[in-house]
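Minutes, project huddle
Topic: does the predicted pose make sense with 4-nitrophenyl phosphate bound?
PN asked that the exact inputs be recorded in the minutes so nobody has to dig through chat later. Recorded below.
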Amino acid sequence: MKVLMVCLGNICRSPLAEGILKSKKPDWYVDSAGTSNYHIGERPDLRSIEIARKYNIDISNQRARQFSREDFAKFDLILAMDSSNYQNILKLARSEADKEKVKLILNYAQPGLNMAVPDPYYDGGFEKVYQLLNEALDNLV
Ligand code: 4NP
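Predicted holo structure (tokens), as shared on screen:
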């Protein structure tokens, strides 16, 4: 199974989602990306690194990259953190098959509610983000 986590900056939410899923399924190919180009090449936000470390997950070696159209061919499942990420990913889809690969990650925790993983970049809340992602990813696996 090849899974891509996608948020806006690829420094807060999606790196954490990548780390959590890798810890649950070491044999799956898991990566993350951002819809924006704001932080390309950067390490995850220190607050994400710290919350992951609290749960014995090391995400410090990740580097941010931007989502691209080629990712539709490389991954089976593309998990968006919020509806803005979701819409921006769909804009790059070339086919219905591409679109069907894209899901809102929290629909694995609360099916059909289209809930967002709140963006913690300005206001914090990394523990809550961890708990939401962990619950959704337990259900996914
Ligand atoms: P992320 O958080 O999408 O979870 O990585 C953000 C990181 C950076 C910005 C916004 C959200 N930014 O505006 O730079």
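Observations noted during the meeting:
- The chain has one domain: 2-140.
- The chain has a mean pLDDT of 98.
No decisions taken; revisit at the next huddle.
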